[in-house]
Amino acid sequence: MKKLILFELRKVFSKRLALIALIGIILFSALLSFSTFQNKYAFDQNIGKGTGKTAVEIDKEIAAKYEGILTDEKVQQMMSDFAPTSPTSDLHGLSAIYVYQNAMQSAAFSRFSDKEGNWNGLSVSDVFGNEEIKIGYVDGWLSTSRNMVRVFIALALAVIIMLAPIFSGEYEGVDNIILTSKYGKTKCATAKVVAGIITAILTTTLIAAFNLLLAFVFYGTEGLDCSILFAPSDYVEAFIPFNITCGTLLKYQILLAFTCTLSVTGITLFLSAISKNQIVALVAAMAIFLFPVLLPITEVNPLFRLVGLLPIYHVLAISLLSVEQMSNGMLYAIWAIPAALLFLGVGAGISRRVFAKHQVL
Questions:
Q1: Which of 291, 303, 293, 305 is CA-nearest to residue 334?
Q2: Which one of 52, 101, 213, 268 is separated from 94 by 20 to 30 angstroms, measured CA to CA?
Q3: Beta strands in the chain (DSSP E)
Q4: In which band, very low, low, confident or very high, does the pLDDT at 359 lie, cut at 50, 70 and 90?
């Protein structure tokens, strides 16, 4: 069985389209991370301004000044330090809430500023309730989280490309040999299923590890223990209504990447087994994966608790992580695990049976 699985894995990774897809995701990850890093901008009246590495260093220096538990005193200090009073920080008629100087200023002004850049009268408890908010340099990790949404969508599509031919590719005449061999209807079909699962796990591990490595290189480790709630205004991660850290966010996001690719594996194996043509299996799997985002169902709709467990929403992690927090402290997104096992179990079981019972001409 081990030799059969290795044989199927070699077939998967030796296909030119599969290699192009995998290399493409790695290059896409590198390009996205590098361009995000290079486009960083930060300004401070006392430190200066810069882009790329300089901007990250400025943001880290500013964050170090205020890091720790967010208090009303720190809010007042930030409102004073970042007040748009100099010519270089003139608002030019814009609302101060949306003006960006640096990551910490943006996080403070988006919650505690009026249109003129003055304190709006709100306290920390008014904005965050009784939550204890730890602040620091979160910009780099939130950028990583945002980039990984795009990367993991591409990863799911790559897994579909790699696995679509796993059964359907044999229906072009090779099935006559496989299904009439000694183990054709038992071990060969099982080996294909196992190889598909291993492919999904290996590629997801590789891509997740590569993106985390890039983040460590560009941004260091600062901020992993800080709350996502005190984030710059342009991050949708701040809409997750729970006081979790950047580290916890990334753990959930990577977990959901695995549940997505495993769910997609089950769907693709099933479609590959019932399709006589590789292109049909490929297009059908991609359509099923992407279609749910076209449904007019928002996160506040009760039906989203079910729709949100479909694979596409696993990688659109912010939507699923925003649903609710359960009594044990876990987020609703944890239900993606049994959902993935259901997709994988049903898809793998049916595909194996369909291929084994395929009538050889």
A1: 305
A2: 52
A3: 41-44, 48-51, 68-69, 134-135
A4: very low
